[in-house]
Amino acid sequence: MTLAVYPGSFDPITTGHLDVVARALTLFDRVVVGIAHNAAKSGHHLFDAETRLSLARQALAQLPGAEVDLVPGLLADYCRGRGATAIVKGLRNGTDLDAEVPMALLNRDLGGPETVFLAAAPAHAHVSSSLVKDVARHGGDVSALVPPVVAAALRQELGQD
Ligand code: PNS
């Protein structure tokens, strides 16, 4: 059984993330969306980890082979504990690549598996959790960028219901 861990903040999960999960499932038997702690973003999250987990679970409920979990510490340790075949990441552009390559190498040094990069489909290349939150905060329509459950959670969190 091959298992990939797809780590990130997922604050919140977007259609771009869902596309990466679906495509990773063509390569691996199981894909675990790992809600991990990004020290650089700590304190800046809109949703707490439990809410991000719950939203991702609801968004992925119909996708056989996908699961969602919290990654409490080092990603490499989590991957070893799960016997993961690979880490999966989506790349939208060169900025993503520059940020991801050092993490891929460091995760390998830390005893983690290889990182496999999937090129973001053009339809999703402009979608990021940060932009989604910005649009939502200003009352814009994010229904094409996030699953319905996330759009509803954004409205509620931002007091727009
Ligand atoms: O979506 P993000 O916030 O860019 O994802 C970054 C994330 C959460 C995957 C990264 O910060 C991470 O792996 N954090 C877990 C702790 C860890 O293992 N840090 C060392 C990574 S080389």
TrEMBL record:
ATP binds at S9, F10, H17, G90, L91, R92, E100, H124, A125, H126, V127, S128, S129, S130. It is an enzyme of class 2 (transferase). It comes from the Bacteria. GO terms for molecular function: ATP binding; pantetheine-phosphate adenylyltransferase activity. Its cofactor is Mg(2+). It is found in: Cytoplasm. It holds the Pfam family CTP_transf_like. Residues 5-133 form the Cytidyltransferase-like domain. The keyword Magnesium applies. Pathway: Cofactor biosynthesis; coenzyme A biosynthesis; CoA from (R)-pantothenate: step 4/5. Keywords: ATP-binding, Coenzyme A biosynthesis, Cytoplasm, Magnesium, Nucleotide-binding, Nucleotidyltransferase, Transferase. Its EC number is 2.7.7.3. Substrate binds at S9, K41, L75, K89. The keyword Transferase applies. SUPFAM superfamilies: Nucleotidylyl transferase. One of its GO terms (cellular component) is cytoplasm. One of its GO terms (biological process) is coenzyme A biosynthetic process. The record marks H17 as: Transition state stabilizer. It catalyses: (R)-4'-phosphopantetheine + ATP + H(+) = 3'-dephospho-CoA + diphosphate. Belongs to the bacterial CoaD family. Homohexamer. Reversibly transfers an adenylyl group from ATP to 4'-phosphopantetheine, yielding dephospho-CoA (dPCoA) and pyrophosphate. This is Phosphopantetheine adenylyltransferase.
